[in-house]
């Protein structure tokens, strides 16, 4: 009995010190623990804050031209003062005293008097200095009698009531003369192996400064 008591005392000491493993049922020993271990959760990532706009980002604008103001001159003034390029997408409203160049009639310049509703207004406006031919507006108008007239705006475009323009503005624009040198070599080789074209590639970057927000012009 003394030996059995001594063994029991030793087992109790091992259990107390953690050196003796407890018996585990066979089913529990084969079972894997599910889920992530304690303390292994993904830590939340700090938010990404962009403090400065990219040079290639586009900004949407809703511009309202007041009645009696020149739409074309108002857009040119906005681009010059804010140093941003403008891509005009659409416009609603009415204009009067329109001066247009109509390519269908040998490029003649005509001035239309009266009130016309804007059907379409497209174009690009760049602050100076800008390459020639890049800046300009094309407009289509409907008269009181239902006639439709259009052309390139070359003079005044006076707003007859509020004119709302949807546009996108940008900081940088790249001016390229096409076709590019590599593209032209491929085209000339496919058309005629004995004929070669040489063209100087003119690549110009137009950089304008940063501007924020929409303005009423």
From TrEMBL:
Q: Name one Pfam family in it.
A: PCC
Which stretches of sequence are listed as region Disordered? 26-47
Q: Domain PPC, which positions? A: 55-194
Keywords, in A-Z order: DNA-binding, Nucleus, Transcription, Transcription regulation
Q: Which residues form a coiled coil?
A: none
**Transcription regulation: present as a keyword of the record?**
yes
One GO-annotated biological process of the protein: vegetative to reproductive phase transition of meristem
A GO cellular component annotation here is:
nucleus
Keyword Lipid biosynthesis attributed: no
Subcellular location(s) of the protein: Nucleus
**Molecular function via GO:** DNA-binding transcription factor activity; minor groove of adenine-thymine-rich DNA binding
Coarse class of the primary localization is nucleus
Q: What does this protein do?
A: Transcription factor that specifically binds AT-rich DNA sequences related to the nuclear matrix attachment regions (MARs).
What is the official name of this protein in its record? AT-hook motif nuclear-localized protein
Taxonomic lineage of the native organism: Eukaryota, Viridiplantae, Streptophyta, Embryophyta, Tracheophyta
């Amino acid at each position: 009995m003394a030996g059995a008591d001594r063994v029991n005392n030793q087992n109790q000491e091992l259990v107390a010190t953690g050196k003796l493993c407890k018996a585990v049922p066979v089913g529990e020993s084969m079972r894997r623990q599910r889920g992530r271990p304690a303390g292994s959760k993904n830590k939340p990532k700090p938010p990404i804050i962009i403090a400065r706009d990219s040079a290639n980002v586009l900004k949407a604008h809703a511009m309202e031209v007041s009645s009696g103001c020149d739409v074309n001159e108002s857009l040119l003034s906005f681009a010059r003062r804010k140093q941003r390029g403008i891509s005009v997408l659409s416009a609603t409203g009415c204009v009067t005293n329109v001066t247009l160049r109509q390519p269908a009639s040998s490029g003649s310049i005509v001035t239309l008097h009266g009130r016309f509703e804007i059907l379409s207004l497209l174009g690009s406006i760049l602050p100076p200095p800008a390459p020639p031919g890049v800046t300009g507006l094309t407009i289509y108008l409907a008269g009181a009698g239902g006639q439709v007239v259009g052309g390139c705006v070359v003079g005044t475009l006076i707003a007859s009531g509020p004119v709302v323009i949807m546009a996108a503005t940008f900081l940088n624009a790249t001016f390229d003369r096409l076709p590019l040198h590599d593209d032209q070599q491929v085209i000339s080789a496919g058309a005629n192996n004995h004929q070669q074209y040489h063209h100087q590639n003119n690549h110009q970057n137009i950089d304008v400064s940063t501007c924020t927000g929409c303005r009423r012009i």
